Amino acid sequence: GSSIPEVAPAPSPAKAPACGGDGRRVSTVLIIIAMQTEALPLVNKFQLSEDTDGSLFPKGVPWVRYHGKYKELDINLVWPGKDSVLGVDSVGTVSASLVTYASVQALKPDLIINAGTAGGFKAKGACVGDVYLASDVAFHDRRIPIPVGKLSTGDSLDMSPQDEAAILANDATIKDMEGAAVSYVAGLLSVPAIFVKAVTDIVDGEKPTPEEFLQNLIAVTAALDQAVSQVIDFLSGKCLSEL
Length: 243
Ligand code: ADE
Prior knowledge:
GO terms for molecular function: methylthioadenosine nucleosidase activity. The chain is α/β, with parallel strands linked by helices.
């Protein structure tokens, strides 16, 4: 009789090995960035498009979501937008908490990245342009004793003597205005978070902070965005258990 030719099974596409731990691969990433100046270079770099649908967030809020695919990741970048009364970026812990909460509820990310600029302490070795990956964060203006953190967060760009004592007690190398708020919400909702902070000014240096901050913002933002890109490249294809 006629023989049936044996057909080799089609080779299956190369697959990354299964994830250990809880078996999840990083797929959806949520980047929270407070300032437009910090956000736009990343929007361009990852070719993200602005969400014009308007159904993600409550009506009337200034929050802006950009999204797109990059390698194996669904990237969402959320910027809290400009304050409708003052016309400035909505920096600080209140906006950071709200947009983080609303974005996590709507997007169910596997991981949050809070990226931004920060003041650095030269006594701890920080220099302008350095980019820090902080794993521990704390608030410094709540007057509640809490465990030490490397990144200290408060709602002021300047530093009162009381803040300074709390920041020292936090053993912080850098100081920002959103990290601990994002960390708080990430903890509430059990989403892992990474903090990428680039130093624009030396808090314990000679120069006035607002001037030094504005002088270095653009150049340091380039270093920040490079670091965020490296983090994103590192994350693509990784399992949560590998981080
Ligand atoms: N972001 C950039 N510089 C900062 C500083 N000195 N304090 C808080 N946030 C900052």
